[in-house]
Amino acid sequence: MHAQHDHYDPEASKIGMWLFIFTELLLFGGLFIIYSVYRYLNHEAFHLAAAELDTFIGAVNTVVLLVSSMTIAMATTAVQQKNYRLTLLLLGITVFLALVFLGNKYFEWGKKFEHGIYPGSDYLKENFSQGEILFFGLYFVMTGLHALHIIIGMIFVIWVMVKLARKKIHSERYVLLENSGLYWHLVDLIWIFLFPLFYLIT
Amino acid sequence: MLKTMSNEKHHIVPFRIYVWVLLALLLLTSSSIAITHIELREYTVAGALLFAVIKTFLVMYYFMHLKFDKPYIRLMVGAVFALFLIVIIITFLDYLYR
């Protein structure tokens, strides 16, 4: 079955992944610049609005993502050492932590929605200033886009787990696992900036 | 032993390095939370961002294997960040001096 010549070029695959990550960095980079300009123009409003966010949940999610980044990085070491059960376990922990992150986000957003804080809500328009509404708009767009990346990353890692279980990924052929790790670390990197910019304004 | 067996392509990073990096990242996170409780006014943002930049470096260098990959990947990443920095500077030159 594998007698057929197939092109396996881990270095090229990795470059491809990096190029894609660059586009992602610039996508979020653009959003960060928009955030910075509006924060510069609406200094006080951003401080007021940020008080509505729960620093504790943000901090918990930061720790969750950092730990999941470590486990997926360790998965590469495990696959290189031919310890496939450990690789699967580490990837499984990563997916589990992704779910924990999304669960936290669900409750966090749910609480905001309950209080009438969501894009375009009448409550927001009547009780908050223009700058505060801008803050919440950016908050929902940026953390929402980030959460979408978490979901995609999670699916990517599950796909890698399936391939690993089917022995399509092994100690001589694991660039897909490495690339899923790169993607996951990118998601972590973005959160590293989202957390201080939205939750740590006092 | 690992070193002699592996070339650039098969560099096996020991688990303990990842554990140390995680500990450093957690320490930096708690520091960035702590710094917001100190009255620093304008420097609070700068402080939190400085911690974020150090964390980014650690994640990219160790977790994303830039330390162990060929130098041209580091170069490409550096170029993207340089481009981003230039765009930030140009944008703020506009807003600060209009």
Write the SSE topology.
The complex is a heterodimer of chains A (202) and B (98).
Chain A: H1 10-41, H2 43-50, H3 55-80, H4 84-114, H5 122-127, H6 130-165, H7 175-199
Helix pairs in contact in A: 1-6, 1-7, 2-6, 3-4, 3-7, 4-6, 6-7
Chain B: H1 2-5, H2 15-36, H3 43-63, H4 71-96
Helix pairs in contact in B: 2-3
Shape of chain B: flat
Structural class of chain B: mainly alpha
Largest contact between protein chains?
A-B, 42 and 43 residues
**H-E order of chain B:** HHHH
Low-confidence stretches of chain B: 1-8
For the largest beta-sheet of chain B, the strand count, sense and barrel status come to:
none
Q: Which structural class do you get from the secondary structure elements of chain A?
A: mainly alpha
Oligomer: heterodimer
Shape of chain A: elongated
What gap, in angstroms, lies between the N and C termini of chain B? 61 Å
Order of helices and strands of chain A: HHHHHHH
Top keywords for this entry?
heterodimer, A: 202 residues, mainly alpha, B: 98 residues
Structure description:
- The complex is a heterodimer of chains A (202) and B (98).
- Chain A is mainly alpha-helical and 202 residues long.
- Helix content of chain A is 81%, strand content 0%.
- Chain A starts with 9 loop residues before the first helix and ends with a helix.
- The mean pLDDT of chain A is 94.
- Chain B has helices at residues 2-5, 15-36, 43-63, 71-96.
- In chain B, helix 2 packs antiparallel against helix 3.
- The N and C termini of chain B lie far apart (61 Å).
- Classes of the chains: A mainly alpha (202), B mainly alpha (98).
- The interface between A and B is large, with 42 and 43 residues.
